Amino acid sequence: MKNIILLLSSLxxxxxxxxxxxxxKTAPLDDQMxxxxxxxxxxxxxxxxxxxxxxxxxxxxxFVGERHRLRHDVKxxxxxxxxxxxxxxxxxxxEFANFRQQDEIDSLIFAAEYDEDLARLIQFKQW
Length: 127
Known about the structure:
The chain is an alpha/beta fold. The chain contains five helices and three strands, in the order βααβαβαα.
């Protein structure tokens, strides 16, 4: 299967923030570095949607981390769907499932053969 976008919760995303008693171990940026960074951003700016879509130029699978129940995260994915379709990406994976369907999910996962009807039923019943 080619071209898949997968959503992951923020629990799977590593933070690069240094939280050592609020003491920064890096030197402050000088004016030249700030100017270079501003120039880079102005020349290479992309919206989040454009950035994600561009990843499919050389990647078959793109993981998107998102924090649950934050409106702008959900809107980003919603807005991406038609753009992904236009790019030829027709598969969207998600980590969510309804715990009440665990028996059905288990039977799908452990079946000798893939049951597409059951997979669709699980997906549509989760809401």
